[in-house]
TrEMBL record:
HAMAP family: tRNA_dimethyltr_TRM1 (MF_00290). It catalyses: guanosine(26) in tRNA + 2 S-adenosyl-L-methionine = N(2)-dimethylguanosine(26) in tRNA + 2 S-adenosyl-L-homocysteine + 2 H(+). One of its GO terms (biological process) is tRNA N2-guanine methylation. This is tRNA (guanine(26)-N(2))-dimethyltransferase. It comes from the Archaea. Dimethylates a single guanine residue at position 26 of a number of tRNAs using S-adenosyl-L-methionine as donor of the methyl groups. S-adenosyl-L-methionine binds at R34, R64, D79. Keywords: Metal-binding, Methyltransferase, RNA-binding, S-adenosyl-L-methionine, Transferase, tRNA processing, tRNA-binding, Zinc. Belongs to the class I-like SAM-binding methyltransferase superfamily. Trm1 family. One of its GO terms (molecular function) is tRNA binding. InterPro entries: SAM-dependent_MTases_sf, Trm1, TRM1_arc_bac, tRNA_met_Trm1_C. It comes from Haloterrigena salifodinae.
Amino acid sequence: MRVTEGGIDLEVPGEQTEGVEESVFYNPRQELNRDLTIATLRTFREREERAESYLDAMTASGVRGIRAAADGWDVTCCDLEADAVDLARENLERNDLADEARVEHRNVNALMHDEMFDVIDLDPYGTPMPFADAAFARCRDLLCVTATDTAPLCGAHFNSGVRSYSAVPQNTDYHPEMGVRILVSALARSGARFDVGVEPILTHATSHYVRTYLELDRKASAADAALEHLGHIYHCEDCLYRETEHGQVADPLESCPHCGGNRLLTAGPVWLGPVQDTEFVAAVRSAIPDAFGTAEKARELCETLEAEVDEPTHYDQHKLCKNWGLPANAMDEFLDDLREAGYAASPAHYGGTTFKTDASVGEIRAATEGSLE
Ligand SMILES: C[S@@+](CC[C@H](N)C(=O)[O-])C[C@H]1O[C@@H](n2cnc3c(N)ncnc32)[C@H](O)[C@@H]1O
Ligand SMILES: [Zn+2]
């Protein structure tokens, strides 16, 4: 089957079923992820001119590495599967880029221990954590990470989440953001073991995966500074009240300060710091060309990320209203009520009914319920 993406022609095994390409080595649903990757790499290189080498650590069809090579990066593609390696080589040749990139048939953990790269991109099936140590040991500037195991990350598959991320995730009404905060926390702690500090400059949770871009600072003091963003979330399952506390040691609440209930969850360590550099995200948005297949969607996503209130958990308006036994109103009106009451409020990218605010659950109700009857 022939596929064109980002100006690159690919031949991938598989067939089109009902207009959707199905292939083990090429997932069309990740095109937005790849479009944003290329725009992020461009933006990052403008800022860090010395960034040249890019490792597409799990290349499959080669699509990501080939798109980066077409953009002038010094690319290494790697895959464990011989069929993927052959396919990536064929696809490089098909685009006359065979001299711009090499393809390694190896376990990428071994490759990363052998060589340093300016940018490393981890895009495995499931959790990226088995690759995090080698990546932090050998990545100079930017680590790009996809995690597709959203059920463990958000606490729905609790034991698996605890095992993979050495943290306690909890299944809450803000589950995609729980995934973001657990993933970045685990990565920050992996980096710290190598005296590397992380700063997330772009992060999104989109249809069954979390993607984050971490700018690295290879200094023990930077690792210490990153760890200061870790802490815990205390969450009430009855009224959806939540509060956060920085620090390595949890000091859970005994009862909910809002409703007095005692069905309380503690999640952590989670990353409580910012997950975007909003100026960087705006620059990424401007670097998305019209020719990209997901240009409109990717720009919209960046715009939402830029405007998101910097709070560690989002709310879901429908779940809140259901909990209060009140009908939900239009999101614009709801957010306007919050702003008029003096709170910061914005839509969130986690779904059409999600929003962020610095108001507590009680303050949200007081500010909005007049418009909900
Ligand atoms: C989700 S796919 C990668 C998709 C690709 N990056 C893209 O954007 O289309 C995961 C790939 O990782 C490869 N893989 C799994 N374990 C690996 C390892 N230890 N070293 C290198 N490649 C590995 C698999 O063979 C598979 O091709
Ligand atoms: Zn409560």
